[in-house]
Amino acid sequence: MRRILGIVLGLLLIGGVLYVAFQGQSRESTATKTVRGVIGSEKSEFFRDPDVVKALAAKGYTVKTETSGSWAMDQLALKEYDFAFPGSSEPAREVAAAAGLKGVQETKPFYSPLVVVARPNAAGVLAANGLATLTGKSTGTLLMGPFLKAAAEDRTWQQLSGASAHAELTGTVFVKTTDPASSNSGALFLAAASNVANGNSVVADEAGVERTAPLMRKLVSVQGALESSSDDPFRAFISGSGEPLILVYESQVASLLLQKQDPGAMVVLYPDTTVNTAHTFVPLGDAARELGTLLATDPRLRELAVLRGFRPQDGVAEFTAATAPHADHLNPGLTGIRQVGTPTVKILMALAQRAKG
User: Fold this and answer.
1) CB distance 250 to 279 below 8 Å
2) Residue 290: is it exposed, middle or buried by C-beta count within 10 angstroms (0-12/13-18/19+)?
3) Does residue 319 have a pLDDT over 80?
4) Is the pLDDT assigned to residue 19 strictly greater than 50?
5) CA distance 141 to 135
6) What is the pTM of this model?
7) Whole-number Å distance between alpha carbons of 117 and 235
8) In sequence order, which residues have a C-beta less than 8 Å from that of residue 191 and are 6 or more positions away?
9) Helices then strands (H, E): number in the chain?
C-alpha cells in the first residue's frame, strides 16, 4: 500500500508541475507588449479607462503614458518613448523631425474641435452685446469677428450691457487659453484668431505676422500665467472656479457628458472660425508601429474613443448617434462653423512668441 500511495503521490506531483508549466505557457502566449508613450493631457482619461486598457490588452498591448504640452514634446528625450501622441499634425511633424525620423507613418485616429466653455451669465452678456449667439440653454456660437474687435479695443465686462447685474464679471473680456508656445489648444486658438484678423486668410508670411501680432499679444498678455495643459483649467471650471470663458477641446466636454458626470452651469460656445485638432499618433520605434492604426480602425477602440468625447476619422455618424442625448450642449454637425487651415509651424510659433512678448 505504501508503494502504491507513493506512486500515486508522485503522479499527482508530476501532474501539478505540468499544469503549472502549461499555465505559464498559456499566460506567456497571451501576454501583452508594454509600450510607453507621451500624450496630450486631453487623452489621459481615454488611456486610463479600464475598458480601453482591456481592449488594448486583447490586441496585445499594455500602454503606459506620460503627459506633455504638444508643442513641447520635441524637446523631450524621445528615445525613452515608443510613441508620441500630440494634439495635431503640426507638433507631430516637429516630434518626428526631432526624433530623426523620415517618412514615418503617422496616423490620425480621431479629432476634436476647440470650444469655449462659458458661465451662463457670461454667455448671456456676450449674446446680448453681439459677441455670441445662443442656440439653446447650454450651447451657442462665439462670433470671432466681434469678439476679436472687442479684444482689440480692450473692452471690459463693465462696458458690456447687462454685465453690471453679475458681480463676478469684471475686468477685461478674454478667453483663458493654454500657453500657445507649448500647448496645442492655445496655439490653434491663435491660428483661428489670426486667420480672422488677417482678412479670413491663413497667415503665411512675416507681413501677416506683423499685421496680426498686436492683437495676438492682447489675447495672451491679459491672461497672466499660462498653463501647458487644458486639463487643469477645465477641471477648475467644472469645480466652479477659474475664469468665466475657458478654451478647451470639445472632447473634454463630451466625455464629461457621456460619462454621465454633472457638467454644472456651463454653456458651450463653438467659435464660428475654428481649427479642428487631428490628434496625430507618431510611432517612435517598432514596438508601437501598429498601435496608431489599431486606434483608428478597431471597432471597439473607436467606440471607446467616442465615449471619451473624440470624433473618429470618418465617424460623424458614430459621434452624432452617441451624443444625441446631449444636443443641448453640443453641435455634432458643427453647423455654422467655418473650419480653417493652420499656418506653417514656423509662422505659428512666430505668432506664439510675439503673442507672449
Assistant:
1) no
2) middle
3) yes
4) no
5) 8
6) 0.86
7) 12
8) 275, 340, 342, 343, 348, 351
9) 14, 13
